[in-house]
Amino acid sequence: MGQDRMPLRGFGTVNFELMLLRRMHDHQPTLVGAALKNLGKSAADLRAAHAQWQRGLRGGFPGGASRYRLALGKPAVVSSRRVPAIGELAVEAWPMPLWPGLQFQVTFGPGGDVVDERLARMSDQAAPAITSAADLRPWQLVIDDLESTCSPVRYRMSAGSVASHAAAAFATPDGTACEAQFSWGLLQSAAAVDDGNHQTD
Questions:
Q1: DSSP alpha helices (H): ranges in the chain?
Q2: Model confidence over 96-136: pLDDT tens digits?
Q3: Entry pTM
Q4: Most buried one in 21, 25, 81, 86, CB count within 10 A?
Q5: Domain segments of the chain as ranges
C-alpha cells in the first residue's frame, strides 16, 4: 500500500536511466541492448522501471521539482534563466552516468510546472564537432549541440509519436540538408536528405 502511494520513492538513477532507455529502444535497440549489459540489467528490468515510472505519473504524487527529487534525490545543478514574455525559469539537473558528460535537465515555469525535460550536456563538457552528416553519431549529440552549430533547427512531432520523441530538420555547416530523430533530447539517428520535406526513419 505504501509503495503504491509513493511509487517513485527510492527509484534512483539506474532505474531512471532504464526508463529513458525504454523509449530509445524504439530507435536504437542495439545500443540499448549494449547499455543494459553495461548496467547489468535485463529487458525485463527495463520494462519494470518504465512501468514503475508510469505508475508514478498516474499515482497522484507531487508534480514539478518534487517528482524528480523524490525519484532521483537532490539535484546536482540548480540554476535559473529568464525568458522574455515568460519570466524566470528554474532549472534542475542530475548526472546520468550511462551517458558520461550528460545530465537529465528539467526546466520549470514560473508556476513550477515542467516545461522541458531532456538530456543535456554538462556545462563543463565540450560538444563534439559537427561539420558534416558523418559527425551526426547516435548517442553522441544532444539537441543543444545541433542548435549551437546547425541553427536554425526545425522541429516537428510525427503523428502517433510519444512526447519524448522529436524529429528535426536542419543543415550541417557544409550545407548538407539532414533530418534527425531524438529521444529525451539525445540523438538516435540522422541522415542526409534530398530536401527538407523528406522524413527519415
A1: 2-5, 12-24, 29-39, 43-58, 64-72, 143-149
A2: 999 999 999 999 887 778 888 999 999 999 999 999 999 99
A3: 0.87
A4: 21
A5: 2-121, 133-192
